[in-house]
């Protein structure tokens, strides 16, 4: 304590720095961080954030209060976030970094570092507002600036993107493609939501685990896969659904599709859909299926609503073809068009993906490329608020193509082509 008292009496900047160092050292000795983790009295071991809180407190990045409470549901303050980022990144402070804010009572090494790194700037009135709570988009911007403002690879479509402030758009996109923010559900980022201390621990745990390696290429992408048709007792009973939100016209809803020698179209669509789901998830994508079983009652409007609710980047409908002329064969992709389209703005991105997909699948499988086919009459397009394509993988009425379609190896080639086209569409592959 003598050293601390002596330093306290010192008036020079050097002496203040000694005092800071000694206080920091004393704090480290007095507060063994491992003990903190044990003493977070208000963290349920089964809570989704329990692991992150334990890790962050053990590493000394965040701290419980004197009573051992972590206060996981409390909104974090700006100073708490600055302090945690500084500790997590092991930021150092130079003499020249010293900054002052009218509303910051004493020199704070974490704030010095944060200002020097451009992590925080202070408000227009020159205040730091260290005790204020922080919106998720601002936290994203702090992390992004601490990382050197890297350019995001993709501008991701998410449900509340329009609510994200312009200054935080790149930061939010980068943080999402690094997989840092999650847990809000519904493909939302919740930019104006306040960051809780539990979220802070979870985000920082992921952030500090980034090793400079690129995350999986489709991290942050939300893709809806829709294997066509279903097995339902309602099929063939005359149930109908609207063709478009803009029309009174209806068409049969629960249709069975075509049929091959050893497989129904419904089964083939599902088999390929599940393979594609696994392949895309392996690349980091968030994949939502309209169905993962055969026995289910689901119509076209409902299928659209699944992707619409999520604000998925794209919905891919998976089908196989049939024709009375059994010589007809080849792969094609249908795309939305026409004045029954409820969301006309989806057309261009759908066509772009459709062309990429039919070319890639034809190249992978060696099938005849029948090109893209614009359709104005499909419920699955007219009700879709997100870009949407419908692949016809081949003709189950053509004996030779059907024999191929029913093999594992050929299905894998189709999946490979579809994955390639999605990577191209997202701009992460040539
Ligand atoms: Zn079909």
Count of DSSP-assigned helices: 15
What value does the Rg take, in angstroms?
28 Å
Strand order of the largest sheet: 4-1-5-8-6-7
The major β-sheet equals: 6 strands, mixed
Low-confidence stretches: 1-37
CATH topology of the largest domain: Aminopeptidase
Coarse shape: elongated
Mean pLDDT: 88
**Counted beta strands:** 8
% residues in beta strands: 5-15%
Hetero groups: zinc ion
Please give the CATH class of the largest domain: Alpha Beta
Give the distance, in angstroms, between the N- and C-terminal Cα atoms: 64 Å
Give the SSE string: HHHHHHHHHEEEHEHEEHEHEHH
- CATH superfamily membership of the largest domain: Zn-dependent exopeptidases
Description:
40% of the residues lie in helices and 10% in strands. The chain is α/β, with parallel strands linked by helices and 430 residues long. It has 2 domains: 71-209, no CATH class; 222-426, Zn-dependent exopeptidases (Aminopeptidase), CATH 3.40.630. The strands form 2 sheets. Strands 4-1-5-8-6-7 form a 6-stranded mixed sheet, with helices on both faces. The radius of gyration is 28 Å and the shape is elongated. The termini are far apart. The model is unreliable at 1-37 (pLDDT under 50). Residues 228-229, 257, 265, 319 line the site of zinc ion.
């Amino acid at each position: 304590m003598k050293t601390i008292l002596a330093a306290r009496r010192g008036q020079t900047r050097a002496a203040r720095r000694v005092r800071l160092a000694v206080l920091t050292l004393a704090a480290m000795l007095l507060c063994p961080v491992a003990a903190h983790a044990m003493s977070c009295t208000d963290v349920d071991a089964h809570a989704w954030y329990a692991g992150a809180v334990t890790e962050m407190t053990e590493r000394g990045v965040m701290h419980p209060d004197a009573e051992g409470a972590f206060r996981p549901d409390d909104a974090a303050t700006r100073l708490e976030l600055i302090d945690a980022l500084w500790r997590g990144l092991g930021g150092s402070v130079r003499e020249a970094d010293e900054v002052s804010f009218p509303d910051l009572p004493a020199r704070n090494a974490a704030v010095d570092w944060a200002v020097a790194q451009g992590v925080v700037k202070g408000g227009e009135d020159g205040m730091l507002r260290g005790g204020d709570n922080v919106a998720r988009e601002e936290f994203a911007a702090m992390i992004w600036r601490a990382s050197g403002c890297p350019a995001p690879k993709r501008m991701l479509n998410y449900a509340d993107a329009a609510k994200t402030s312009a200054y935080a758009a790149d930061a939010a996109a980068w943080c999402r493609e690094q997989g840092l923010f999650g847990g809000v559900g519904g493909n939302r980022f919740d930019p104006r939501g306040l960051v809780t201390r539990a979220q802070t621990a979870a985000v920082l745990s992921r952030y500090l685990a980034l090793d400079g390696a690129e995350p999986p290429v489709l991290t942050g992408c939300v893709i809806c896969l829709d294997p066509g048709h279903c097995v339902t007792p309602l099929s063939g009973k005359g149930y109908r659904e609207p063709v478009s939100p803009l029309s009174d016209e209806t068409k049969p809803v629960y249709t069975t599709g075509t049929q091959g020698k050893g497989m129904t179209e419904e089964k083939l669509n599902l088999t390929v859909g599940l393979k594609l789901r696994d392949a895309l998830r392996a690349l980091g994508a968030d994949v939502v299926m309209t169905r993962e079983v055969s026995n289910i009652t689901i119509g076209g409007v409902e299928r659209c609503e699944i992707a619409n609710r999520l604000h998925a980047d794209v919905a891919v409908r998976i089908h196989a073809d049939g024709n009375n002329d059994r010589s007809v064969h080849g792969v094609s992709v249908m795309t939305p068009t026409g004045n029954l389209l409820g969301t006309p703005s989806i057309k261009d991105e759908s066509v772009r993906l459709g062309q990429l997909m039919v070319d890639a699948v034809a190249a992978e499988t060696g099938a005849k490329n029948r090109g893209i086919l614009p359709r104005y009459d499909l419920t699955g397009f007219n009700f879709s608020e997100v870009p949407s394509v419908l692949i016809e993988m081949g003709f189950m009425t053509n004996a030779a193509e059907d024999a191929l379609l029913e093999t594992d190896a050929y299905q894998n080639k189709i999946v490979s082509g579809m994955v390639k086209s999605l990577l191209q569409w997202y701009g992460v592959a040539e």
